[in-house]
Design a protein that fits this description.
Layout: E1 2-3, E2 7-8, E3 13-16, E4 20-24, E5 27-29, E6 34-37, E7 44-47, E8 50-52, E9 57-60, E10 66-69, E11 72-76, E12 86-89, E13 93-103, E14 107-110, E15 114-123, E16 128-131, E17 135-145, E18 150-153, E19 157-164
Parallel strand pairs: 1-4, 2-5, 3-6, 4-7, 5-8, 6-9, 7-10, 8-11, 9-12, 10-13, 11-13, 12-14, 13-15, 14-16, 15-17, 16-18, 17-19
Length: 165
């Protein structure tokens, strides 16, 4: 799915029986919505100028890569609903942008490796960043805030940031 402008999937559902790519030149709004890929080796890619996944769900049931890229990424579970405010995949998950706000019960989870690449800030206050294997945060110029949050990996954990709170 591709938009030359913005993409609004508020309370909507985008689902593929295989790999999926959702791309917008402008903002992607997935508030309360679902974007899902299903299939043994499915990949899932979400790319836009900004991405709001408040109370939304990005899920890749396949073992392929899941990538989310935008200058500003917001992921939160403000309603406390199970499975909402989630970005996840069974394989490697990569989230890249200038800023990442994963707060209020937001979860970014990987069935294998989780990699964050952020340039300005990572706010994981009350959020979860979790990898079944390795967790890597490449945020050399960024401040990382993890108040009441959880950052974990069952393998190696690497956090490269300008400052940690």
């Amino acid at each position: 799915m591709q938009s030359g402008s913005t993409l609004r999937n508020a309370a909507g559902r985008v689902q593929a029986k295989g790999s999926a790519a959702v791309t917008a030149v402008g903002a992607i709004t997935n508030t309360g919505g679902q974007i899902e890929a299903d299939g043994a080796s499915a990949t899932l890619q979400v790319t836009g100028a900004s991405f709001d996944n408040t109370n939304g769900r990005i899920a890749n049931a396949g073992s392929g890569a899941t990538t989310v890229g935008a200058a500003s990424i917001i992921n939160a579970n403000t309603g406390g609903v199970a499975g909402a405010g989630t970005i996840g995949g069974n394989g490697d998950v990569t989230v890249s942008g200038q800023t990442l706000s994963n707060t209020q019960g937001g979860q970014i989870v990987a069935g294998h490796d989780l990699t964050l690449a952020t340039a300005r800030s990572v706010n994981n206050s009350g959020g979860t960043l979790s990898a079944a294997n390795n967790f890597t945060a490449n945020a050399a110029g960024a401040a990382v805030v993890n108040q009441a949050g959880s950052i974990r990996g069952n393998g190696a954990v690497s956090l490269n940031a300008a400052s940690h709170i």
